[in-house]
TrEMBL record:
It comes from the Bacteria. Residues 34-61 form a coiled coil. This is Phage protein. It holds the Pfam family T7_gp14. The keyword Coiled coil applies. InterPro entries: Gp14 (IPR038996). Residues 1-23 form the signal peptide. Keywords: Coiled coil, Signal.
């Protein structure tokens, strides 16, 4: 009676240990996959930041072209009206137009910088998430090794107890 019971205990231990090991490997693989996804998302955030920088430069260039066009139209209109462009209301209008143009340009720059900062933060968060997932993958394997060892030791203890119990009879 001892041999079949003890053998079943060993088989059960082996199956349990294999299941624990398989679960650890699967958990590690899932964490590595999550790390790869987070790495890809970090790359996409960096790409989005570069795209935003390009878009901001383009918008700023378009703004300055419109600003130059507006100032040119104002000068032509004032000159056609016989106004001295460097004096009085004409000079004030030119200065105000330039000031508003600089304010608009600064708004474009600030908005672009804020958007880039958001992408940079997002990318940093994804890189941290990837690192945490890689650590979880390693932790799952270490936990699995301990789980397999615990299962094996428990099974050995059970086998020993069964041999003692049934070996005496």
């Amino acid at each position: 009676m001892c041999a079949p019971v003890a053998t079943l205990a060993l088989i059960g231990t082996a199956i349990s240990a294999a299941g624990t090991g398989f679960a650890a490997v699967q958990s590690s693989a899932q964490s590595r996959y999550a790390a790869n996804v987070a790495d890809q998302n970090a790359r996409l955030s960096a790409e989005a930041a570069r795209t935003q920088q390009d878009a901001t430069r383009q918008e700023l260039q378009t703004h300055w072209r419109r600003q130059a066009q507006l100032q040119g139209q104002q000068r032509v209109a004032m000159a056609a009206g016989g106004l001295d462009l460097g004096f009085g209301n004409a000079a004030d209008l030119s200065a105000d137009t330039a000031m508003l143009g600089r304010e608009d340009a600064q708004r474009i720059i600030d908005q672009g910088a804020n958007a880039v900062k958001g992408f940079d933060i997002e990318g940093s968060n994804y890189r941290s998430q990837a690192q945490a997932s890689r650590q979880a993958a390693s932790g799952a394997l270490v936990d699995g090794v301990f789980g397999v060892a615990t299962t094996a030791l428990g099974g050995a203890q059970q086998h020993r107890e069964l041999k003692i119990k049934y070996g005496k009879h």
